[in-house]
């Protein structure tokens, strides 16, 4: 039996060609010194991650990111380290430095997926990121696919761009992206409107679901990944999600990975429970053994009975919304997800 995977979202550098309006690094306007790991720190971090997986019987999976990881001077050296240990990985990066040769090399080193971002149609996306970014992103889907790497397009949704999401789906399908998903904006001090109501978000999910099904019926090759855990709530209402007959009370079967099978490591070495959860530092990889941190500081993020609303919801074991959005909105990891519409009235929340 193969070991379960554990995911490390590893930010090796803050260096980036863009200054996105919703970026955690730049959105507050206070980031004056960009950080990057040294090669020695990269090696120490890598073996700390392998030690963690050895202790807990997991297989490591790395989501390599930044900033843009390809800008790190030791980027290719790190990929050699992955290759030497037969480790597959995904890159979350920008499109600007990709070409056919680069993508072929990424594939050879073991890159399985390359994730790009699309945060609106042309005018909106280029406002979010930088002029020309929209067209460049869609153009690079082809060379990613040609190299045999799965192309992923990710959208960060807020009230600022929610009206364009169905149009983004059309653009992504036309470009031939292998995977499309979206996640919600976590308020972090930027210019984006975070006031999307629960009912507005439910209507957006319904519109996207309709679009997804239309493309699937046409034989579209894009896989529409329902990443946001509130899709579970939506599909419970539509009858597409039902409770497994063998589900055990008290077990957690899905939903947010924070505290379950994921951690984030920043270029400073800081270990975060989740990059999207503000102030979720639990240690530093240059000073702490990850296996020890997992059993101590990370316990705070696994106290499921503390969820104000989710702990009373029938979908607790499969959903829990997005605690990062709750934290960004209300300052509390265990507060109500502001876009969740589960209630006593619809029979999901105990009174």
TrEMBL record:
Q: Does the keyword Ligase apply?
A: no
Q: In the record, what terms sit under GO molecular function?
A: 4 iron, 4 sulfur cluster binding; catalytic activity; metal ion binding
Q: Which InterPro entries match?
A: 4Fe4S-binding_SPASM_dom, Aldolase_TIM, PqqE-like, Radical_SAM_PqqE_MftC-like, rSAM, rSAM_ACGX, rSAM_sf
Q: Where are the transmembrane segments?
A: none
Q: Which CDD domains match?
A: Radical_SAM
Where do the Radical SAM core domain residues begin and end? 2-214
| Gene for this chain | acgM
Which co-factors does it depend on?
[4Fe-4S] cluster
Looking at the keywords, is Repeat present?
no
Stated name of the protein: Radical SAM/SPASM domain protein, ACGX system
Keywords of this protein's UniProt record, alphabetized?
A: 4Fe-4S, Iron, Iron-sulfur, Metal-binding, S-adenosyl-L-methionine
């Amino acid at each position: 039996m193969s070991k379960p995977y554990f995911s490390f979202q590893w930010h090796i550098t803050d260096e980036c060609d863009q200054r996105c309006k919703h970026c955690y690094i730049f959105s507050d306007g206070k980031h004056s010194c960009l950080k990057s790991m040294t090669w020695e720190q990269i090696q120490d971090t890598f073996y700390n991650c392998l030690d963690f997986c050895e202790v807990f019987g997991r297989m490591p999976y790395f989501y390599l990111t930044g900033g843009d990881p390809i800008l790190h001077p030791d980027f290719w050296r790190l990929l050699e380290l992955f290759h030497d240990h037969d480790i597959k990985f995904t890159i979350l990066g920008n499109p600007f430095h990709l070409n056919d040769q680069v993508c072929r090399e990424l594939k050879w080193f073991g890159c399985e997926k390359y994730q790009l971002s699309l945060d609106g149609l042309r005018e909106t996306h280029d406002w979010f990121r930088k002029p020309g970014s929209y067209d460049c992103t869609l153009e690079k889907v082809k060379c990613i696919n040609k190299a045999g790497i799965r192309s992923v397009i990710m959208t960060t949704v807020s009230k600022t761009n929610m009206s364009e999401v169905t149009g983004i789906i059309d653009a992504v399908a036309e470009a031939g992206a292998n995977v499309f998903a979206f996640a919600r904006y976590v308020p972090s001090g930027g210019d984006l409107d975070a006031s999307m109501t629960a009912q507005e978000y439910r209507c957006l999910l319904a519109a996207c679901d309709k679009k997804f099904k239309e493309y699937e019926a046409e034989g579209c090759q894009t896989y529409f990944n329902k990443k946001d855990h509130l899709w579970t709530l939506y599909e419970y209402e539509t009858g597409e999600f039902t409770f497994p007959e063998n589900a055990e009370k008290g077990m957690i079967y899905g939903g947010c990975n924070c505290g379950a099978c994921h951690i984030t490591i920043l270029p400073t070495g800081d270990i975060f429970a989740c990059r999207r959860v503000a102030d979720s530092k639990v240690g530093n990889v240059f000073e702490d053994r990850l296996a020890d941190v997992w059993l101590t500081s990370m316990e705070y993020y696994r106290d499921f009975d503390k969820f104000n609303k989710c702990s009373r919801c029938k979908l607790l074991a499969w959903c829990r919304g997005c605690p990062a959005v709750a934290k960004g909105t209300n300052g509390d990891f265990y507060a109500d997800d502001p876009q969740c519409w589960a209630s006593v009235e619809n029979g999901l929340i105990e009174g």
